[in-house]
Amino acid sequence: QVQLVESGGGLVQAGGSLRLSCAASGRTFSSYAVGWFRQAPGKEREFVAITSRTGANTNYADSVKDRLTISRDNAKNTVYLQMNRLKPEDTAVYYCAASSYYRSVPPTMDYWGKGTLVTVSS
Length: 122
Prior knowledge:
Elements: E1 4-7, E2 10-13, E3 18-24, E4 33-39, E5 46-51, E6 58-60, E7 68-73, E8 78-83, E9 92-99, E10 111-112, E11 116-121
Parallel strand pairs: 2-11
Antiparallel strand pairs: 1-3, 3-8, 4-5, 4-9, 5-6, 7-8, 9-10, 9-11
């Protein structure tokens, strides 16, 4: 089992940057693909980005390509989401999630964190 804890959310002005972190417990963290998802107020949760077990493969939602970068440090059991050129429409609760399988747009994930709030002001 994997426990995930997100951090790094906050309030930022449009055009600014934030880096989210997802810290995982468990010695088998490197066995999981890890993704980021988000849920804006009044909307369904949506896929943002995913990285494979080694980080060699990644995929992004079209809405965040070229602005957000996912990376991982398996030695630190941590996955990051670097968010640049933020827009008000990026405002959401961001969740990280782990899966035993890498899929470029995962329909489901096995484990979820509780989320961190990102607010982008205009």
